[in-house]
Write a structure and sequence with these properties.
The complex is a heterodimer of chains A (399) and B (280).
Chain A (H helix, E strand, L loop, with lengths): L2 E12 L3 H9 L4 H8 L2 E12 L3 E5 L6 H8 L7 E6 L2 E2 L5 H10 L1 E4 L11 H5 L1 H6 L3 H14 L15 H14 L4 E5 L7 H18 L2 E6 L2 H7 L2 E6 L2 E6 L1 H6 L4 H8 L9 H4 L5 E3 L5 H11 L3 E5 L5 E6 H9 L15 E2 L5 H10 L4 E4 L5 E5 L1 H9 L8
Parallel strand pairs in A: 3-8, 3-9, 6-7, 7-8, 11-12, 14-15
Antiparallel strand pairs in A: 1-2, 1-4, 4-5, 9-10, 12-13, 15-16
Helix pairs in contact in A: 1-2, 7-8, 14-15
Chain B lengths: L8 H12 L3 H24 L2 H15 L6 H16 L3 H31 L1 H16 L3 H11 L3 H12 L1 H13 L2 H9 L4 H30 L1 H5 L6 H11 L2 H28 L2
Helix pairs in contact in B: 2-5, 2-8, 3-4, 4-14, 5-6, 5-8, 5-9, 5-11, 5-13, 6-9, 7-8, 8-11, 9-11, 10-11, 11-14, 13-14
Classes of the chains: A alpha/beta (399), B mainly alpha (280).
Chain lengths: 399, 280
């Protein structure tokens, strides 16, 4: 993976005595002290992060955390006070107006929270906007806009005005407008926040679908951690203009950097994030090709359990063996335990989200077995571990 | 108070007008240019046979309001114009129309760019606001005096005085309209790499258009309210008829001409409003 966007010491100070405020900031004064002394507000304080080519990078925080200012400095809608924004090595913060215009036209597009569609234009004309700005010929821009609209499923609506469309459809137009430019970097500013929850979820999934084919570098602002966890490859959490933590969704959940992040993740729907692989525990097994009933009985006794998962020498899952059947076999002097195996174990795969397993796990009498693509046993899911993960207590078991 | 000498403000302004009158050449050019526009418009109106003119206005109104089906307005226009024709006010009406259209045109040409500038520059806005207040509240009669000194007698000083009085709504509404375009739309234009000119023509002006049109409509109505006053310095038209009626103490003919002004005002108002509603 190569770095597409790199942000170094990016700082934004709003107000009048910016230079003085900056010196104070560098000397380690707090934002409150700076505000009192200079009446300047520190919007973003020396942010450093790197976004990899083709990933979805979510910047999240509450309002006032500086996330909107940060994304606007990436395409210089807000001019940084200091620091640099490197896109493919070129510094956005210091380039000339003409260079900036070229980068905005060719490399980056933005999607806005309240859609920012032009009311006097049709869906098609709105989608063509970026191309029109670039001076692309009429026929070419019509073709590209049509393609972009088809991509977001709005091909039929080209001649409508956006006030005739629902919120979700309007934001699809916003997406199509951004995609029509074929940018390398897509900036999405709370793009789905204005939508109702059902629509939001649908748009998130659609974005992931599109991304699977397009592999754009997407920088996505959100205040919704569930959204961030759902779509983000990496998540950056901001508070009061500072970066609190950067990590993958699992890292954020399992190792919150501080109380702030912890409070943030308290309300998270973990079942969407955790997979069977995260909560499975070691299964107590018996290799039925080698072991006899006495070994099986001893293993049950040692582990204080009443059944064993039966596997072969290649660890393929065969089924389950009951304590009662094993005792009977011992009584009847039967050495082969293979006939005792009951193939009644429900199975699942490592990346199945817990959300999909919740009902099944709580209603099955035999714990689910997690198997790989060749049906080899990886572990089992016991109810207690699922509940533990969902409540956030035992999250670092398997991550 | 009485011990203090009177501030010679009137004297200063007289001196200023006298000084500015030295730029005769400049005002001569403006007078001729405006005269040219006025004569051209009047020439077209004089050329058109009256029934053709009436039908043309009705056809225009029908086309502008074709989605709303305002039959009543079309009937009103027909009856109104027939009344003006019947009363022998036709030429006066076209002269008044010429005055109003020329004044409105100038109000747009000067007012829209001024409003744009004020919307984009705080200092300009701070200067323009009191200036507009002044222009609109100063009794319109006062403009007549320097207008005559600089532009002579006739339609041209009438137009100039009307423009000064009628322009403020266009400036204000243009400024307001541009400032009301949502910040996100501006950001969207910038984020796609628009130049300032592209941002203005593709986002700001279209977004402000209906507010600007409302301002132009107001300017036009104010210009129309100036016609009687303008007639005092020789601007011909329906205002002259009213002015004469006042001089002769004839209530009847005063009302007859005044009614013609009202009819013209309603027709102009409805047509400009229809233009505004028409967009999409």
């Amino acid at each position: 993976m190569t770095t597409k966007v790199e942000v170094k010491n990016l700082t934004k100070i709003f107000g009048k005595h910016v230079a003085k405020a900056q010196t104070m900031l560098e000397n380690g004064h707090t934002k409150q002290e700076i505000l009192v002394a200079t009446e300047a507000t520190v919007g973003v304080d020396r942010a450093n992060f790197a976004v990899e080519d083709g990933e979805i990078f979510v910047i999240m925080g509450l309002s006032g955390s500086g996330k909107s200012t940060t994304i606007r400095m990436l395409n210089r809608l807000i001019k940084p006070t200091s620091g640099s924004v490197l896109i493919d090595g070129e510094d956005i913060a210091t380039m000339t107006k003409a260079q900036l215009q070229a980068v905005r036209r060719q490399k980056m597009s933005m999607v806005f929270q309240s859609f920012a569609l032009l009311p006097n234009r049709t869906v098609q004309q709105n989608t063509e906007f970026g191309l029109e700005i670039q001076g692309v010929s009429k026929s070419e821009r019509a073709a590209k806009a049509q393609k972009a609209l088809a991509m977001v499923g709005l091909g039929e609506y080209a001649s409508q005005y956006h006030d005739q469309l629902s919120g979700g459809m309007q934001q699809r137009v916003g997406l199509a407008r951004a995609f029509a430019n074929d940018p390398e970097v897509l900036l999405m500013d709370e793009a789905f926040s204005a939508l109702d929850p059902l629509n939001r979820r649908e748009m998130q999934d659609e974005l992931l679908d599109l991304q699977a084919n397009l592999h754009k570098t997407i920088i996505f602002i959100s205040h919704d951690l569930n959204e961030a966890l759902h779509i983000g490859d990496h998540i950056l959490i901001m508070k009061d203009g500072e970066i609190v933590q950067i990590g993958t969704p699992e890292e954020i959940l399992s190792n919150p950097a501080d109380d702030y992040v912890e409070r943030f993740i308290e309300g998270v729907d973990r079942s969407q994030v955790y997979t069977a692989g995260n909560v499975m525990v070691r299964a107590t097994t018996v290799n039925v090709e080698k072991a006899g009933p006495r070994l099986a009985a001893r293993r049950m006794r040692d582990n204080e359990i009443s059944s064993l998962y039966a596997i072969d020498s290649e660890r393929h899952l065969l089924g389950i063996i009951d304590a009662k059947d094993v005792r009977q076999a011992i009584d009847q002097h039967q050495e082969d335990i293979r006939p005792l195996v009951k193939d009644i174990v429900p199975t699942t795969t490592i990346d199945t989200p817990l959300a999909d397993l919740m009902d099944a796990v709580s209603s099955t009498p035999v714990p689910y077995a997690v198997v790989d693509e060749r049906h080899r046993l990886q572990g089992i899911i016991i109810r207690g571990a699922v509940l533990g993960a969902l409540s956030g207590n035992e999250v670092n078991v398997n991550v | 108070m009485f011990d203090l000498p009177k501030i010679p403000l009137a004297h200063w302004i007289d001196a200023f007008v006298a000084w500015i009158s030295h730029f005769e050449g400049f005002f001569y050019v403006i007078t001729n240019a405006l005269g040219g526009i006025i004569n051209a418009i009047q020439w077209v109106f004089d050329l058109l046979p009256i029934p053709v003119f009436i039908l043309a206005v009705i056809a225009l109104t029908w086309w502008l309001t074709r989605h709303e089906r305002k039959l009543g307005l079309l009937v009103f226009e027909l009856l109104g114009f027939l009344y003006i024709w019947n009363q022998g006010f036709w030429r006066d009406m076209t002269q008044t129309l010429t005055l109003v259209l020329t004044a409105s045109l100038l109000a747009i040409i000067i007012g829209v760019p001024l409003g744009l500038w004020a919307a984009m520059n705080r200092t300009v806005a701070r200067i323009v606001k009191p200036l507009m207040d002044f222009m609109q509240t100063m009794p319109a009669f006062v403009y007549l005096i320097p207008a005559v000194a600089l532009f002579g007698i006739g339609m041209v000083p009438g137009v100039v005085a009307s423009v000064i009085f009628a322009m403020p709504p266009t400036v204000r509404m243009t400024q307001l309209g541009i400032q009301q375009v949502s910040g996100e739309l501006i950001e969207a234009a910038d984020s796609f790499g628009a130049t300032r000119w592209q941002r203005l023509t593709k986002v700001q002006l279209p977004g402000a258009l209906s507010t600007i049109m409302a301002g132009i409509n107001q300017s036009m109505m104010l210009a129309l309210s100036m016609v009687v006053i303008a007639s005092m310095i020789g601007a011909m038209g329906l205002g002259t008829q009213v002015y004469f009626a006042v001089g002769r103490n004839e209530a009847g003919s005063g009302f007859a001409a005044g009614l013609a002004i009202v009819i013209l005002a309603i027709i102009l108002d409805r047509i400009t409003q229809a233009m505004n509603h028409k967009q999409h």
